[in-house]
Design goal:
The chain is of the alpha+beta class and 522 residues long. The protein has 14 helices and twelve strands. Among the domains are: 159 residues, PAS domain (Beta-Lactamase, 2-Layer Sandwich), CATH 3.30.450; 172 residues, 2-Layer Sandwich (Heat Shock Protein 90). The two termini are 69 Å apart.
């Protein structure tokens, strides 16, 4: 089989006005040409019939008038009569009388007529009249229509009269010029109409095209969309003189309604997205609760012991002062843990500020510290600097970090279920690359099959066995990173495990002096 490769065809952009103009011009010109040919033919046929009637009538009358001159052989009077007839009828080019033996008896030529003209229209076989068309004898005449009439039944000869069609040609030319003038007038009017039609059609379409080109999430959110069909443009107002609408108005209204429905769908989608994000966060809170309970129980046990010992020896002021300090530390620890959990679980708006990303990675680690210790996972930090700043929403980024860390813990737990001696490890790498910050979460868990990697950011995709998930963690994380103008990708490690890479834009370094975020607290 031979495969034919299709080559791309470059399309030529042709504005609507030129399409109308070409269509109208071709229509008018074709219509005008056909009508011009038809009119010329019909007018010529009309004039032709008229000149034949006039020619035969004049020839018949003249033949009767010159009969007596021929009978009495009055040649001079005959010539005078012929000249007089020619002078009265301007379309007559010549007159001549030919004898029965084909000799010229009288004529109106300045010299003897040519023999070819004499022989051009002979009445043979009893014809009562004859008409022949003779081509131009001079430059000024185009066609001569020669009429032959017998004189006294041809016993005295034949009268020949030549009528010029010069007048007919002039009238045809005048009629043609007038018609051509009308056609060009119609063409100009058509081009004006084409401009008007193309304008009232293309202007709303241009507005629609402009609105479509600038529609994005920000325009939907600000409701900066739609086209105004009630314009102040005078040309567009002309079509509304009779308070009538057309398909363009219907299309414009439908377009505005579509954008309105799109805005409603966007608002509903945003609400759904926020709801899914918060639902996933609450699901993570349930996972963190066991570890946080442990973090709270230990200080509570210490406080309980301190209270018991104070009760045993209330008079020992030095000992009691030491126990009070220990109780304050335990209460502070509990308060910090509870505050961290409440702050994480609370629904936050995505408000961007300049933050030290390391601090919020550490906040996330503190919330999953129990799960990491309980699974016996080694946690390694590889930070390029102690302070790296970005513009971000702290609570939302902490949600991303917790999702990724919990996924790594679950992946290691599943691998450990098949190999109890397996030692899990999570590595967090953080470094700057140009104007970006690169964050990597690397674990040595079970990883994913290559065909499933492309699905990890799809809603409700999950393959967890150790702890069934909602399948929304990475989807929500993807949306959060995208709203930070960043990128998030996943890939298997060559030696086993999985790597999630996040790239976030970094603000200008000159802004480092104006830091509103607490730094280096880990």
């Amino acid at each position: 089989m031979v495969t034919i490769k299709a080559f791309p065809i470059n399309k030529v952009k042709l504005p609507l006005f030129w399409k109308f103009a070409i269509a109208i011009s071709l229509t008018v010109l074709l219509f005008g040409t056909l009508n011009l040919l038809f009119i010329r033919h019909q007018v010529y046929r009309t004039f032709e019939a008229q000149i034949e009637r006039n020619g035969l009538s004049i020839a018949s009358i003249t033949a009767e008038q010159i009969t007596d001159h021929l009978l009495y052989n009055e040649i001079a009077a005959l010539n005078n009569h012929l000249q007089k007839t020619k002078s009265v009828v301007h379309d007559i080019k010549y007159l001549m009388v030919i004898s029965p033996d084909n000799q010229v008896i009288a004529h109106t030529f300045n010299s003897d007529p040519p023999q070819s003209l004499i022989n051009a229209n002979q009445l043979n076989g009893g014809l009562t009249s004859g008409i022949k068309i003779i081509h131009s004898l001079s430059r000024n005449d185009t066609i001569i229509r020669d009429f032959a009439t017998p004189i006294l039944e041809k016993r005295l000869g034949t009268l020949r009269i030549g009528f010029s069609e010069h007048t007919i040609q002039q009238r045809l030319e005048e009629a043609s010029r007038m018609f051509i003038f009308l056609v060009f007038g119609l063409l100009i009017f058509g081009l004006i109409a084409a401009f008007f039609l193309s304008y009232i059609i293309s202007e709303p379409l241009k507005k629609m095209s402009y609105q479509v080109s600038k529609i994005n999430l920000s325009s939907l959110e600000s409701r900066d969309y739609g086209i105004d069909l009630d314009t102040n443009n005078k040309l567009l107002k002309l079509k509304n003189l009779f308070n009538m609408t057309d398909e363009i108005d219907v299309l414009g209204n439908s377009f505005n309604q579509m954008l309105f429905r799109l805005n409603l769908a966007y608002i509903e989608l945003e609400r759904t997205r926020e709801s899914l994000s918060h639902t996933e966060k609450l699901a993570s809170v349930g996972t963190l609760a066991a570890g946080l309970a442990h973090e709270i129980n230990n200080p509570l046990t210490g406080i309980s012991n301190c209270i018991r010992r104070i009760s045993d020896k209330p008079e020992n002021i030095e000992q009691n002062r030491e126990y009070f300090n220990m109780m304050n530390e335990a209460i502070s620890k509990i308060s910090k843990v509870v505050k961290g959990l409440l702050d994480f679980s609370r629904k936050h708006e995505m408000n961007f500020s300049r933050i030290n990303i390391i601090r919020h990675i550490e906040n996330s680690l503190s919330l999953i510290n129990f799960q990491v210790q309980q699974a016996g996972i080694i946690l390694k930090r590889d930070y390029e600097l102690n302070e790296i700043y970005i513009n971000g929403s702290p609570n939302h980024l902490e949600q991303v970090f917790i999702n990724l860390l919990l996924n790594s813990v679950d992946s290691i737990q599943e691998k450990k279920a098949t190999d109890p001696s397996f030692k899990g490890k999570i590595t967090i790498k953080l470094k700057t690359e140009g104007q970006s910050v690169k964050i990597e979460f690397i674990d040595n868990g079970i990883g994913l099959s290559p065909d499933k990697i492309k699905l990890i950011f799809e809603p409700f995709f999950t393959e967890k066995k150790a702890r069934p998930g909602t399948g929304l963690g990475l989807t929500v994380s993807y949306d959060i990173i995208r709203n930070h103008n960043g990128q998030i990708t996943g890939a298997n490690e060559d030696d086993g495990g999985f790597r999630i890479t996040i790239i976030l834009p970094q603000p200008d370094k000159q802004e480092n002096t104006n830091n509103n975020d607490a730094t280096g607290a880990f």
